[in-house]
Specification:
The chain is of the alpha/beta class. It has one domain: NAD(P)-binding Rossmann-like Domain (Rossmann fold). Helix content is 39%, strand content 17%. It contains seven helices and six strands; from the N terminus they run ααβαβαββαβαβα. It has a six-stranded parallel β-sheet with strand order 3-2-1-4-5-6, with helices on both faces. Strand 5, helix 6 and strand 6 form a beta-alpha-beta unit. It is globular and about 40 Å long.
């Protein structure tokens, strides 16, 4: 059935007829997938919006990953966070600018959203997730990427922090269902304290077209 639906989706006459007739046939989105060898800069010229709970332990790794991958960073954070991204961007020939989630132009759409939730330790602080994603999810282009970064609950020192970090899993799974109809993926990466230098590889992969079938995990 999956191959049949893909065939309908790629046939412009069939897909137009289905839409006009209002038939309850869910046509899968066209996914952006890598077809060639591994690229040195898989995010070349893409725009990625980055948010979080201030300057965190993963900020340097996120900034380096985006710059090394060729992406331009749109930073929804304070000036101290922006300065880190600008330093990496300057070294790699990319750009980094400060943005405000509620005031971002609807066009052009961005390639990805990255949110560093490692600094969220209490239930009230979860409002930061909503404040970031609510106005921005619709700004992600089809076949885009959403990545949330957290801390393993077992590595949290307080029970409330562990519960909050555990809750990120459910949030990402729900988000993946919401954005999946447009071919966009959503994933959670839990980074142990002290393992920040290991983030670049997995983050680079999840933001690239090679992760088209990895979502809700």
């Amino acid at each position: 059935m999956g191959d049949f639906l893909l065939g309908l989706r790629e046939n412009p006459y069939a897909s137009k007829a289905i839409r006009r007739l209002g038939l309850p046939i869910p046509l899968p989105p066209v996914l952006r997938r890598a077809t060639g060898p591994w690229e040195e800069k898989p995010l070349q010229d893409d725009y990625v919006i980055v948010g979080g709970a201030g300057l965190g332990r993963l900020t340097p790794a996120i900034a380096a990953t985006l710059a090394h991958g060729g992406a331009n960073a749109l930073v929804a954070g304070d000036m101290d966070v922006l300065s880190l991204f600008r330093k990496e961007a300057l070294d790699q020939g990319t750009d980094a600018h400060r943005v405000f989630p509620d005031a971002i132009d609807p066009q052009p759409r961005v390639a990805a959203l990255v949110f560093d939730a490692t600094g969220i330790a209490t239930v009230p602080e979860l409002i930061r997730l909503h404040a970031f994603f609510h106005p921005l999810v619709s700004r992600v282009r089809p076949s885009g990427r959403i990545v949330v970064l957290g801390t393993p609950p077992s590595a949290c020192g307080l029970a409330e922090q562990a519960a909050v970090q555990q809750g990120l899993d459910g949030f990402v799974r729900s988000l993946a269902k919401e954005v999946g109809k447009k071919g966009t993926t959503a994933g959670l990466v839990q980074v142990e304290p002290g393992a920040e230098e290991n983030l670049e590889g997995i983050l680079r992969f999840l933001l690239s077209t090679r992760s088209a079938f990895v979502t809700g995990q």
